[in-house]
Write a structure and sequence with these properties.
The structure holds two protein chains of two kinds. By secondary structure, chain A is of the alpha+beta class. Chain A is 35% helix and 26% strand. Chain A folds into three domains: 47 residues, Uridine Diphospho-n-acetylenolpyruvylglucosamine Reductase, domain 2, CATH 3.30.43.10; 117 residues, Uridine Diphospho-n-acetylenolpyruvylglucosamine Reductase, domain 3 (2-Layer Sandwich); 110 residues, CO dehydrogenase flavoprotein, C-terminal domain (Enolase-like, domain 1, 2-Layer Sandwich), CATH 3.30.390. Chain B has two domains: 76 residues, Roll (Ubiquitin-like (UB roll)), CATH 3.10.20.30; 76 residues, DNA polymerase, domain 1 (Orthogonal Bundle), CATH 1.10.150.120. Classes of the chains: A alpha+beta, B alpha+beta. The interface between A and B is medium-sized, with 28 and 30 residues.
């Protein structure tokens, strides 16, 4: 690695000030699993690495007035082990489990995964399907936006140069909303998603129909996206396998997958249809309490 | 330069290194602990796996500064003068390694698994080893070795209280 300076930030304010001072020549170190790889291949050195990995205020998973707060520094392993998440949002634990391998999940953070803004990130779809918000700090103070507004383009977020993601919040209205995550990679371990998909919806118990359905897809567009037409199709419909399969086919028409060395665009479209259907079925199974655990 | 103090295999070690130094480099070049290997250097192969504060991590993806003040266990911390660690013995008995380059990482990943789960099933074992690439064995014997080691360690743990009682 090329030489760089290193500062362990004392608190969020200190980190933001350092980022403001050094701009693009500063990088934030959270878990480091993406940053170190980037720095090893970087053509130019950095001025400084701002280490936020010890900031207690960015850690922890807890219930606050607004909802469930997941500190940006919560690791994927923390998410897998959290009793609150296991109880209310097992789909988030499944998504965390599908990332990398145990070594990367122990270091890699949720905030870091989101901030990479790569289309294939596995944390994004489930959070987006649960209408997650993100909080961040910058020179102007603290702000909160929907997660979808964080994602701008591949590897580009809406945060300014001095922006620091601080937490992810799932609103209270969505507590225990049945949800599921599906991923297809070329291997079980250490694989990027060819496509991933998440679904969440409430079930109208009288009509057995979809209420507030959400579908989010990864690796099929420049950023993680929702599938609004498929969602609109599902709203109020009686829950059947045929309806779920049709929602998958609609979702496949809403994405803009590319062909690359991992898969062709056509194959990815087929995967969207299948994974969307499976995510809906799996969320429904959870809603019906048919399964207590699902395997990513 | 940054100063780091790390407890490595129970012993406090200090070094002053450039900030871009990885934990792996610190262990190998400053502390002469060459058990953890430099393989892919990007967190895919797991040959550099060590345990930091109880967690298996890729030491190639951790800066020395991140490890400052923490406790690190490497493959050198397992065996004693008298005997191999039961995981190492089980890997040897099962022929679970051929070239052996992935061994220190795979064994430390196994150790971290056992620290959390003394009775893992095959799925747990495959999950724990999914970050350890082995190009020789095809993993089957490695998984058998981990199952053997788990049995041995559980038997040892069960025997311990009895031994204490008998020695009274």
């Amino acid at each position: 690695m090329k030489a760089f300076g290193y500062v362990a930030a004392k608190d969020v304010g200190h980190a933001v000030a350092l980022l403001g001072e050094h701009g693009a020549r500063a990088k934030v170190l959270a878990g480091g699993t993406d940053l170190l790889v980037e720095l090893k291949f970087a053509a130019h050195g950095l001025k400084i690495v701002v280490d936020i990995s010890r900031l207690a205020e960015l850690k922890g998973i807890s219930i606050i007035d607004e909802g469930l707060r997941i500190g940006a520094l919560a690791t994927h392993a923390d998410i897998m082990r959290s009793p609150i998440i296991g109880d209310m949002f097992p789909a988030l634990a499944d998504a965390a489990h599908s990332i990398g391998a145990v070594q990367t999940r122990n270091l890699g953070t949720l905030g870091g995964n989101l901030i990479t803004c790569v289309p294939s990130m596995d944390s994004g779809p489930t959070l987006m399907a649960l209408d997650a918000q993100v909080t961040y700090a910058d020179g102007r103070g603290h702000s909160q936006v929907p997660l979808a507004e964080l994602f701008v383009a591949p590897r580009k977020t809406s945060l300014g140069p001095d922006g620091l993601l601080t937490a992810i919040i799932i609103p209270k209205a969505n507590f225990a909303k049945p949800a599921a995550f599906q991923k297809f990679g070329l291997r079980k371990g250490q694989a990027l998603a060819l496509v991933n998909a998440a679904a969440a919806f409430w079930v109208d118990q009288d009509k057995n129909s979809f209420v507030q359905p959400r579908i989010a897809l990864g690796a099929v567009a420049p950023t993680v996206i929702r599938a609004p037409r498929a969602e609109a199709f599902l709203e109020g419909k009686a829950i059947t396998d045929e309806v779920m399969a049709e929602a998958g086919r609609i979702a496949a028409t809403e994405a803009k997958p590319i062909s690359d060395f991992r898969a062709s665009a056509g194959y990815r479209r087929d995967l969207i249809a299948v994974l969307t259907k499976r995510a809906l079925q799996s969320a429904y199974a959870r809603a019906s309490n048919k399964v207590r655990e699902s395997v990513p | 330069m940054i100063d780091v103090t790390i407890v490595v295999n129970g012993e406090t070690r200090r070094a002053s290194v450039p900030p871009e130094t990885t934990l792996l480099k610190l262990l190998r070049e400053n502390f002469s602990l060459t058990g953890a290997k430099l393989g892919c250097d990007v967190g895919d192969c797991g040959a550099c796996t060590v345990i930091v504060d109880g967690m298996a991590v890729n030491s190639c993806l951790m800066l020395a500064g991140q490890a400052n003040g923490r406790s690190v266990t490497t493959i050198e911390g397992l065996a004693t003068r008298d005997r191999l660690h039961p995981i190492q013995k089980a890997f040897e008995d099962n022929g679970a390694l051929q070239c052996g380059f992935c061994g220190p990482g795979a064994i430390m990943a196994t150790k971290a698994l056992f620290d959390e789960n003394s009775d893992p099933n095959v799925k747990d074992i495959r999950d724990a080893l999914s970050g350890s690439l082995c190009r020789c064995t095809g993993y089957t014997k490695m998984i058998e070795a981990v199952q053997d080691a788990a049995r041995i360690l559980r038997a040892e743990a069960a025997a311990k209280p009895r031994q204490l009682e008998l020695s009274k």
